[in-house]
Amino acid sequence: MSKVLVIESSARQQGSISRQLTDEFIAQWQKTHPNDEVSVRDLAQQPVPHLDEVLLGGWMKPADQQSEAEQAALARSNTLTDELLAADVLVLAAPMYNFAIPSTLKAWLDHVLRAGVTFKYTETGPQGLLSDKRAYVLTARGGIYAGSSLDHQEPYLRQALGFIGIHDVSFIHAEGLNLGAEFFEKGLAQAKTRLAEVA
């Protein structure tokens, strides 16, 4: 049995295409992996604070020198990191906001990309510690950006995930969603076909 961790980052609860893709992925995955455990963290309903001095204090100060706020920030970061460490499969649902990922997803990444936990520094440079995991990234985009210089989602997420050792990453893009009904239907259908293949 594998553990699947799904991270939702759309600001919308209703009418969200990335959430629709997530629902489709989970349904397809459970059909082919009925014994797997799927958990969902919704960053819109449970926002993660952005990286700040309090969290840095929780990471860097000895326990007996931490304030209550720093201890709480560290505990929150530990919870998020423990969820990731326990997962075999990571699913990131990421609508495109202003050519990139939602700030909520960036905040989550800032909590889980942690030296000594998900990566370590070596004499030859940083080394990711999560090489036993695979990831799927489900994106929803108003235009068509894959492979273009305006796509700041896929390159960034590949680098961030690769930095912690996750190199087996599949991207499923639903594109052209704001270009009219024909593009919308085509983009969504292509994404759902791809979801069925990878699940």
Folded structure, characterized:
- The chain has 199 residues and is α/β, with parallel strands linked by helices.
- It has one domain: Flavodoxin domain (Rossmann fold, 3-Layer(aba) Sandwich), CATH 3.40.50.360.
- It contains six helices and seven strands, in the order E-H-E-H-H-E-H-E-E-E-H-E-H.
- The strands form two sheets. A five-stranded parallel β-sheet has the order 2-1-3-6-7, sandwiched between helices. A two-stranded antiparallel sheet has the order 4-5.
- Strand 4 and strand 5 form a beta hairpin.
- Helix 1 runs parallel beside helix 6 and helix 2 crosses helix 3.
- 31% of the residues are buried.
- The mean pLDDT is 95.
Envelope shape: globular
Radius of gyration using CA atoms only: 18 Å
Distance, first to last CA? 15 Å
Overall tally of structural domains: 1
State the strand order across the main sheet: 2-1-3-6-7
Instruction: Find the CATH superfamily.
Output: Flavodoxin domain
Largest sheet: 5 strands, parallel
Helix count, DSSP H or I runs of 4 or more residues: 6
Percent of residues in helices: 40-55%
| Strand percent estimate | 15-25%
- What CATH architecture label applies? 3-Layer(aba) Sandwich
Sheet/helix structural class: alpha/beta
CATH topology: Rossmann fold
Averaged pLDDT: 95
User: What oligomeric state do these chains adopt?
Assistant: single chain
CATH uppermost class: Alpha Beta
**Total beta-strand segments:** 7
Order of helices and strands: EHEHHEHEEEHEH
Cofactor: FMN
Function: Also exhibits azoreductase activity. Catalyzes the reductive cleavage of the azo bond in aromatic azo compounds to the corresponding amines. Quinone reductase that provides resistance to thiol-specific stress caused by electrophilic quinones.
Keywords: Flavoprotein, FMN, NAD, Oxidoreductase
Protein name: FMN dependent NADH:quinone oxidoreductase
